[in-house]
Write a structure and sequence with these properties.
single chain, globular
Length: about 120
């Protein structure tokens, strides 16, 4: 049973950090997410870093700043750099991605409860 999607989580990180998507949309997406939505360690760490920076600076960091951030492990930054995941650009795609991530989060919760 698959309890997470690495591709989906990478797509979410790329969407959150894409400069071409309006800051308001990215901030709204960030507000709807929590670390529970991520399972894959590199994306979980990246999300936590994005969230920390957003709380301190009141802005969402862009992708290039994220992969250059020394607070993330070098292996995680290399994985993010080498990812070919595409960001979601339309509202419909973002809502669909968020819905899928929510479903994986619920599935993991049930899995851990039954384990």
């Amino acid at each position: 049973m698959q309890i997470y999607s690495q591709e989906l989580e990478l797509r979410c990180i790329k969407t959150l950090t894409c400069k071409e998507i309006p800051e308001k949309v990215r901030s709204t997406l960030l507000g709807k997410l929590s670390k529970d939505f991520f399972h894959f360690d590199p994306t979980k760490s990246a999300f936590e870093r994005i969230n920390t920076i957003a709380r301190k600076r009141f802005t969402v960091v862009d992708f290039h700043d994220l992969v250059d951030d020394p607070a993330l492990l070098e292996d995680y930054r290399d994985l993010l750099r080498s990812s070919d995941a595409e960001e979601c650009r339309s509202r419909k795609a973002i809502v669909s991605m968020l819905h899928s991530m929510e479903n994986f989060r619920k599935l993991r919760t049930l899995y851990y409860m039954s384990d």
